[in-house]
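Let us practice reading a record.
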Amino acid sequence: MERSAREVFLHYLQDSGMNMTPQRATIVEVFLREEGHFSPEQLYEAVGRVDPAIGQATVYRTLKLLTESGLAVTLDTGDGATLYEHGYGHEHHDHLVCLHCGNKIEIMDPTIEERQQRIARENGFELTRHTMLLYGICPECRDTSEH
């Protein structure tokens, strides 16, 4: 039976010698409710609607812990910004990222996944996780730039 995301985070904290503080619990709850891709600032704003006393630094530190625990994964948008999304309990996917408008499209392709696994095996690697980001120009931005 798979552990809940909350249990995974709690075990990670315990294994790291940390406690689940009320502030961390609030941030984790808000994080788990958010879907899609979001910036640390967007998470901070969402946390602030629940508990305005939680500071931005606490949100950033907890987001780092969420990433280290495997609950969050990062997405480099190609313009220096980092977005986050759920990394546990969600189906693995890769991304197409538009370099003009920042649009992100989630893609799931079993052929690509099998090829990545095969490449890892051929090179003696045991994959534990991976991310594939494909950068380019989306159709809407291409159409706009052509006119």
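A brief commentary: The beta strands are 72-76, 82-86, 94-98, 104-107, 133-136.
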